[in-house]
């Protein structure tokens, strides 16, 4: 009987629910989310040489398309004396110029393919958490591959297609059509910018919904866990917890898992290209190499000689506005070490954060954002903080105090910052009642206005 129920359940979600959901990208013909999912479920077990061979074919096709139909790429390849035949594998990309946010802003129209099919793409933008939003185009094909990759990441965490999920990344009020599309695949979207009293009210909805999983930005997951702990809201459990969008710190992971009696699975991506790497059951972030070529480079596109460098991304599926050797500003380290799970997919070993989230020391070194939350978590009198570095000589420390605040504790914080950045740094403290999240619902702890040369 159980086998029959599971079979009927799978038929509903695979043949009815997801094709309806996919209609937001256009009619569900050709490549479908479920069809791609089944393919990449097989691809993940390929030997790495076989995966690289697949990458080569997709890369050659993309480069040829970019050269023939995208004015910007045609021009830069001509200037460098490159033809499509010169880029045969990932190793040849070293000869290809990098793509930056500034280049995209200055050449947006010229980066769009002349073969762009009307109605088969979406125009979207980044959340602008690091400054000015970036506008770009993604075609249906790359969106469908993104959805399939996300579903595979869910399967790695023990979440089946159609299991109930709370999505805490939504901003504002969803449309009726949007609500229908998410509910038909058993998802419930809640406002990422909800205040504490709203979060408390959400808990009754979550308890009655009985979700298998939750997905949210890392800081928001931690905030929700803290609110539940503070108000002794018990009985809210998520066996699988998906963190994304921000750096997830070890103390946050431990607290979230303990509060919600589940396991956190962190995944990495960016709006420009979608999800890039998901944690497997052994908590290694595997790159979706069917979709991406990931390099770790310096700011000029040369291989990074140190342990980490700028994430340089080639999206093999977006033909509407190709992202070839795109540097999104994140600093990371990759590894080819084998994982116990048996998948040969390359691993992102660590992510150090955005270039704008590194502070410069007086002697020219860099301090990553990850250095500060581990200190501030033990500061009892400060609920929120943000460190801004406008120049080499100054730091602005924004704080939100609570009833445990003391002048001595603030002096200790300032001393810690001086020890970390430089004794001669000028620290200006600004007291606020609230430090708002970014427009996309993220929490920026560190903001640097200084250039960084990796």
Automatic annotation (TrEMBL):
SUPFAM superfamilies in UniProt: Acetyl-CoA synthetase-like
Signal peptide per UniProt: none
Domain of life of the source: Bacteria
Keywords: Ligase
Gene3D superfamilies in the record: N-terminal domain of ligase-like
Entry-linked InterPro entries: ANL_N_sf, CapK_Type1_Caps_Biosynth
Name of this protein: Phenylacetate--CoA ligase family protein
Protein species of origin: candidate division WS5 bacterium
């Amino acid at each position: 009987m159980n086998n029959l129920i599971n079979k009927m359940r799978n038929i509903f979600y695979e043949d009815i629910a997801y094709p309806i959901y996919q209609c937001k990208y256009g009619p569900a013909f050709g490549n479908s989310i479920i069809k791609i999912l089944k393919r990449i479920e097989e691809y993940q077990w390929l030997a790495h040489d076989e995966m690289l061979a697949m990458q080569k074919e997709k890369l050659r096709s993309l480069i040829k398309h970019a050269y023939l139909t995208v004015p910007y790429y045609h021009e830069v390849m001509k200037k460098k004396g490159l033809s499509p035949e010169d880029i045969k594998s990932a190793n040849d990309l070293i000869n290809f110029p990098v793509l930056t946010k500034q280049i995209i802003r200055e050449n947006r129209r010229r980066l769009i393919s002349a073969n762009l099919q009307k109605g088969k793409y979406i125009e979207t933008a980044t959340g602008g958490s690091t400054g000015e939003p970036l506008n770009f185009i993604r075609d249906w094909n790359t969106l469908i591959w993104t959805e399939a990759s996300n579903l595979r990441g869910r399967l790695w965490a023990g979440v089946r297609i159609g299991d109930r999920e709370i999505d805490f990344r939504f901003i504002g009020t969803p449309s009726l059509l949007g609500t229908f599309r998410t509910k038909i695949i058993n998802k419930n979207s809640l406002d990422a910018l909800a205040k504490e009293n709203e979060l408390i009210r959400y808990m009754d909805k979550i308890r009655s919904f009985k979700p298998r999983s939750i997905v949210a930005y890392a800081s928001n997951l931690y905030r929700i866990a803290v609110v539940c702990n503070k108000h002794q809201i018990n009985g809210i459990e998520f066996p699988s917890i998906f963190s994304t969008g921000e750096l997830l710190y070890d103390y946050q992971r431990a607290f979230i898992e303990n509060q919600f009696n589940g396991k956190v699975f962190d995944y990495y991506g960016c709006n420009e290209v979608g999800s890039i790497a998901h944690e497997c059951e052994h908590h290694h972030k595997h790159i979706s190499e069917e979709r991406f070529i990931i390099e770790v480079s310096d700011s000029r596109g040369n291989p990074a000689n140190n342990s980490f460098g700028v994430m340089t991304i080639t999206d093999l599926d977006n033909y509407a506005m190709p992202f070839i050797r795109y540097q999104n500003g994140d600093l990371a380290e990759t590894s080819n070490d084998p994982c116990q799970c048996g998948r040969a997919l390359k691993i992102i070993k660590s992510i150090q954060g955005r270039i704008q989230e590194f502070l410069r020391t007086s002697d020219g070194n860099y301090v990553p954002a990850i250095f500060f939350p581990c200190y501030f978590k033990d500061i009892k009198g400060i609920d929120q903080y943000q460190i801004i570095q406008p120049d080499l000589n100054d730091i602005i420390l924004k704080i939100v105090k609570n009833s445990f605040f003391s002048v001595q504790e603030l002096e200790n914080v300032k001393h810690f910052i001086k020890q970390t950045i430089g004794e001669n740094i000028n620290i200006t403290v600004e007291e606020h009642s609230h430090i708002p999240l970014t427009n996309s619902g993220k929490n920026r702890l560190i903001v640097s206005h200084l250039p960084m040369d990796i």
